[in-house]
Amino acid sequence: MIDAAKFTEFKVSGNLPSPEGSALKVLELCQRDNVTLPEIIQVMRVDPVMVGRVLKLANSAAFGRPRPAVALTPDILMSVGIQSVRQVVLAFSLISGNRQGRCPGFNYEAFWSHSAATGVATQLLGAATRAAPPAELFTVGLLSNIGRLALAALYPVRYGELLAQAGGQLSAALTALEMEDFGHTHLDIAAAMMQDWGLPKLFTDAVLFHETPELADFDAASRSYRLVRCLHLGARMTDNCFMPKQERGKEFFKLLPLAQTLGIANGDLAKLGDQMLREWIDWSTLLEIAAHEVAPFSTLDVTPESSVTVAQEALKHLTILVVDDDPTVRLLLQKLLTAAGHTVHVVGDGREGLAQAARCQPQVVITDLLMPHCNGFQLIQGLRQTELGRSIYIMVLTTIDDEVRLAKALDLGADDFITKPVEGKLLQARLKAGMQTFGEQQVLRHEHEELRRRLQELSIANQRAREAALTDDLTGLYNRRYAMERLAQEWAEAERSHRPLSVLMLDVDHFKQVNDQHGHDVGDAVLRQFADTLRRFSRAQDVTCRFGGEEFLVITTDTALDGALLLAERFRMAVERKALTATGISLHLTVSIGVAEKRVTHANIDQLIKAADDALYRAKHHGRNHVEAAA
After folding, report:
1. Is the pTM of this model over 0.85?
2. Beta-strand runs (E) in 519-612
3. Distances (CA, A) of 394 to 204, 365, 367, 416, 418
């Protein structure tokens, strides 16, 4: 991320977008483990507009409230959830304070609309892949591009100029210009801002790498790996919503392999996309930002064209970048190549060449070797270090007797050369021969991609089979087998790092009566809704499992007994205040919870679980609907 001293300088300037006043106080309160709901409400009531927004959220269709909420009470706040309140307060505060600015060419309204859509898409994708709690995923998506807004505020004039160079688009080309001009990108600043606001490292890492997930060195089985790719895919789906209609089907087809790496089938991605569009409209109304009508993803034509045919056709009309400090040579090559039907871009040195390559994405680069600022050798090396540059056909301009420099250029990755002075027919012949080789490589690359896709599908099938073996069919939570495996891992980590570890054992009170009086269908529906409540009020690091029957286990990492007791009390109150409904029957149930922290007296995970189970027994003995700590 950005250097700490530099970020402090930005903060001191007062130009960084940030929550202020009562919103900032609410965010600080929500980060405390021991905060009470009345404390949060007391601060929120200072800002009637904020209260109105939260009530509007509470009355939205997502919560299915039978009667509209007209006042902010602990019951209302509990039903919405502290994390949901936190995200809506942060979103409202940032948006209301940054609807316009001084950066020319920066479309503030479109920025927030795009951010809201990314938040919704990330939330849905993350929920489908269990990357993190949905309430927090919206915030991550919403803030993933906040660094763009920060740069527009910090350097309004210069950032407007860079934006114009990038064609007015918040794109990869603009990111490259940010690094070149400022020495840091919007991603660095966004991650630093989120860290400053107290968001977990899991989320700041996701923002840092979401534009280039292939550079993130996360284990494929880790939650960080899934979260980075969820955010990447969510941003790409949002980009799709802002494309011309005729391009959306082809571009959406390119997203299907990305979704498959997350275990999301093609049809499921389209359904998630349609749900995203609906919820984007809802959030836009709530946040009072623009959202345009978009054709549903399920209506897009995603019939794949033959990659080989497309590649061969594309070779007839190439995009070529000419890099040379001699304006006469540039003009000559531009005329020769344009006359042959190619699209030609010309720049004067290697530094401009790298930036232009990111913008126009050429199939061919023709470069001189000796240039000021950044020479041809540096350009070749820089291109070959990027995914885009590795697929470009590079020709160097040289003289007949310059064998040493030519050999060096070829060693660095150049594909061919042509001698000066350039002769038109020879250039076309060398280009044609090179493109035949390039076309064959494209075919091989297509075949390789097809093989990789099939292997990916097999890997996904294996992953789904493993997930099915570790997932409870009824509730969708992890099952007892996974709970024991994961608890053993967390136990070992706690031993190594000397960090606290606690577990909660939960049991639905009088559940047998529900089955006896209303039948197992109602009982199953109650357990599913109970599991949903646990998901909603869990934190990002909590691992929630169905242990068996009406018993559930929550593993709370990096959490001592006091923090685990507060979480347990939050669960107990949430269950007590929520009516569980099934087949027209409304039931008010309670839960008893036993809590135990890993102690030196516990020899293994079995003893830790037994301690929590004994505490649960005492909670039942004390009248149920009770939280009890292990002795």
Report:
1. no
2. 542-548, 551-557, 580-582, 585-587, 591-597
3. 37, 5, 8, 7, 11
* φ, ψ at 131 (rounded to 5°): -75, -35
Token reading at 310: 């497309």
Q: What is the pLDDT of residues 252-297, one digit of tens each?
A: 988 988 888 888 877 789 999 999 999 898 888 877 888 888 999 9
Domain residue limits, the chain: 4-12+102-299, 18-97, 310-442, 480-629
By residue count, the chain amounts to 631
CATH topology classification for 480-629 = Alpha-Beta Plaits (3.30.70)
Residue ranges for the chain with pLDDT beneath 70: 1, 33, 60-66, 133-135, 303-316, 400, 438-450, 452-468
The answer to whether the beta carbons of residues 85 and 30 sit under 8 Å apart is: yes
Point out the catalytic residue in the list 550, 576, 597, 628.
Answer: 550
Paired residues of 628 in beta bridges? 594
Q: Residue 396: helix, strand or coil by DSSP?
A: strand
Question: Residue 146: is it exposed, middle or buried by C-beta count within 10 angstroms (0-12/13-18/19+)?
Answer: buried
Dig out the tokens for 1 from the structure.
């991320």
**What is the sign of the dihedral through the CA atoms of 264, 265, 268 and 274?**
positive
| Three-state DSSP class for residue 87 | helix
Q: Class of the 310-442 domain?
A: alpha beta
Q: What is the pLDDT of residues 116-155, one digit of tens each?
A: 999 999 989 988 887 776 667 888 899 999 999 999 999 9
**Does residue 136 carry a catalytic annotation?**
no
Domain 4-12+102-299, what fold?
Hypothetical protein af1432 (1.10.3210)
Peptide bond preceding 421 in cis form (omega within 30 of 0): yes
